[in-house]
Fold these 4 entries.
Entry 1:
Amino acid sequence: MIDLGISKLALIGAVALIVIGPERLPKVARTVGALVGRAQRYISDVKAEVSREVELDELRKMRTEFETAARDVEQTIHKEVNDLNQEVKDQAQAVNDALSGNASGDGFDSSSPFGNSDGGFVPSWDAAHKSHNGRKSWRVKQGARPVWFKRQQGTRTWVQSGAARVKRHRPARGAARSFFE
């Protein structure tokens, strides 16, 4: 860039004073200052735009990398799920083959998976989650969950009123007084 010291600026100012004249010099100085300010703003805008484009290109590259990685993970998961599905189907087929080869004289009914021939209804998971109009039924869903699962998750199996809960967790009367004395 051009190196302008105080001596060079003073020389330029003196020449401008002689050439332009003292009455028009302030107006010209304001115009030159405005033009220099516009040029600086334009240059800074161009620099900012270039840096935004560079960042945008970097973000696009990162996005494509993430998308390819996500696709690879998705394909791996689908492959594993399909393999497990096939293995489960093979095992189920083996169990069905073993059950169909079983003699019917042992009291086990092979037509029912639960061994009862009375045709008892066992609700499916979907049936336990839907009510008669197709919406989810909370009560049916909660009733379909096994007790061991409720205990493991910390789900309350009985309803307790707020007053009973307060009474259960309130300290004994004598314990509170002796603590503060």
Entry 2:
Amino acid sequence: MAMLVLLFSLFAGFAHAEPAAININTADVAALASLNGIGQSKAEAIVAYRDANGPFQSSEDLANVKGIGERTVEKNAERLTVE
């Protein structure tokens, strides 16, 4: 019985695991596309913007990329990092 409780708690813990943080200054297109509201084309736009303008100073700067608004940045705020 104790083994079943332990297994259940392990599986329940995995179900609630937080997605990994994404450094928007180093992430590739695939990683960026995993963000909420960011698909392949917006991820490519982020990389192109970063290449043209240099690294982002803060995650809020992501809203400077055409097609990405403040709401998208807010939805992903807990996953975004800038290093």
Entry 3:
Amino acid sequence: MLFRLLKSYARLALRIYIRRLYVNKPAMLQVKGPVLFAANHPNSFLDGIILTTLLEETLYSLARGDAFTPRWNKWLRRIHLLPVYRTTEGAGNLAHNYTTFASCHEVFAQNGVVLIFSEALCVNEWKLRPLRKGTARLAISAWQKDIPLTVIPLGFNYSSFRSFGKDVHLLFGSPIQKESVLQPDGDGKQIQAFNQQLQAQLEGLVYHLDAGDQEGLRRHFPVPVNRVEKMMLALPALLGWLLHALMYYPVKWVAALFDSDHYDSVVAALHLLFYPLYLLLAILLVWSMLGWTSLLLLLLMPFTARALVRVAGR
């Protein structure tokens, strides 16, 4: 129940936070399991949140293991996150990945859907980083258990990692075939065959741009000029800035205290967490002057925020 409520709320909120969302294969959003999405990882936990809100099926995401402290472990698992450990988090923790793989196998056995970040590292950049072996090992171990798993490459692409109101492109690839991976040549050859196929597909699904390449960004994320829309939304957008500035700028300042590669995700998460409270406080403030009319803010504030996102530049 908690997961469904959060998913529904995040689905609505991201319609405001993201200016334009493009999916190259919309049918993939109705996919049935068992499925493993093998993706790049440019924007921290915002990658997982976006895919979670778009999919019809419940999504289980693999997340960095050091976040699963005793304090947060239960809550993270309740929103369908599973820990995966890297050598940088201690070689002794790597054995816990077998438990996570077993949990993934259980999800697959129930026709579930799992998201894994095949680079195993989040970096705000427009390129594909070297792939680790975890995705291959998870897929191969499932196939060896006769689980009819479908592995689908997925590229996350963002027009910006710092601005409010960005364009996001989700590019799905073609399923990786079990028969082309499971060879009688040993695990090493199988992992190599899997990663070669995954690498080849992700190279075509992930945009490759140098930092500061504005021309490349405009080419991949064209912004159609609609003067009529801009004229109609100009005043609502200005009102949206006035109504939300008291929340937006403090959120930016707090997010700047975190690792830069997590900045965008922290900004999105803080807005998701505190916007209902901010909206409630605005209604209570106006209530003393306008009474029940203040409830119109429930529609006005989200509308003006959306108008600001539509009008604002990249």
Entry 4:
Amino acid sequence: MSGQGYFEFNFAPSTAWAIYHFGAYREGMSAVQAAGPPNIALELDTRSLRLNATIDLSGLSPSVRSENASLALAAVIEEQGGSLSYWALAHPPGKPDFHHRDNFALRFDLTDFR
């Protein structure tokens, strides 16, 4: 996660989605218009649910598309009884906080995806 700003991409099994930009940690949230809607596909069997989302990043600023990126991959699971569980590649100490910088554990070069 370079600088202080970051993007949040939300994808749901219902195929609902949203993209937000934050200017700093949990501050300055604004909705982002994507170049087009993401392609969301679900795979469901008796043991798992897989959500695959493909989105066109060309609507984001050029600096975002040309820099190294950090990704905080997370999920909130609500069971039929209403209990919640929080899943992520990394968790900072304390209660779940997917906006915390320590969650951004997956790093890659966006130029590899052009």
